[in-house]
Amino acid sequence: MSLKQYIDPNRIPEHVAIIMDGNGRWAQAHGEQRVFGHHNGVHAVHCTTQVAAELGVKYLTLYAFSTENWNRPQAEVDALMNLFVDTIERETPTLCENNIRLTAIGDLARLPERTREKFEECIRRTAQNTGMTLVLALSYSARWEITQAVRNIAAQVAEGTANLNQIDEGYVSRNLTTKDIPDPDLLIRTSGELRISNFLLWQIAYAELYFTDQYWPDFDEESFYKAIIDYQHRERRFGKTSEQLAK
């Protein structure tokens, strides 16, 4: 019996963000190289994207490759870049069939030209889709993003197009790469690690955090349903009291 029946369709989080962790350890547990885990993690991406769209999630952000990941062995980085290209080529028709729009955040200029061109092509092909938005965080880190925002704001002040009195939380948010995306309601991390790893640090200020011991390749529909159910059992107060929310 599926956990889906226990989900309240009126309380689906608008934006779910996921730190997809554990591919390497999953591969090692199966006596394989790390790249084998990355390939199997693609199935979890496909599955999670489908089920999130079916439930009515409006935005799904997946932490696909961090700026720190550039420090991994070159063979693994190259394999990941090739995997990104192959996956995008294969999944673009499915995204279009399911009315899913693709976009990306991060320092995309660092991606190999072929990888960047494939992502840009898919973004163009899905730009008119009106269903869920799938956001891939590529060559991304929150500290990089915030640093870029500070530079942009400083330049605006220096140019006279902004003044210090204008700079509030909303102004900062509008200078982040996620300026057109609502903050996450739910952040999921797989693999049992209990940390955020430099992901959407500004945006998750009031997100509900959900950690699971499952490695990413094992994360399936029921795993996602379980996370949504856990989210729906929480009281989101945003600094208020329970009594205030009840009014």
Question: Would you give an account of this structure?
Answer:
The chain is of the alpha/beta class and 247 residues long. It has one domain (12-141, 184-233): Undecaprenyl pyrophosphate synthetase, CATH 3.40.1180.10. Helices cover 43% and strands 14% of the residues. The protein is built from eight helices and six strands, in the order βααβαβαβααββαα. It has helices at 23-29, 34-55, 74-97, 113-126, 142-159, 169-173, 221-232, 242-246, and strands at 15-19, 59-66, 101-105, 133-140, 186-189, 208-211. Strands 3-4-2-1-5-6 form a six-stranded parallel beta sheet, sandwiched between helices. Helix 2 (34-55) packs parallel to helix 3. The longest helix has 24 residues, at 74-97. It is globular and about 55 Å long. The protein starts with 14 loop residues before the first strand and ends with a helix.
Give a summary of the structure in a few sentences.
The protein has 247 residues and is an alpha/beta fold. The chain has helices at residues 23-29, 34-55, 74-97, 113-126, 142-159, 169-173, 221-232, 242-246, and strands at residues 15-19, 59-66, 101-105, 133-140, 186-189, 208-211.
Taking the sheet with the most strands, its summary is: 6 strands, parallel
The strand order across the widest sheet is 3-4-2-1-5-6
How many domains make up the 3D coordinates? 1
Which shape, going by the Cα principal axes? globular
CATH topology grouping: Undecaprenyl pyrophosphate synthetase
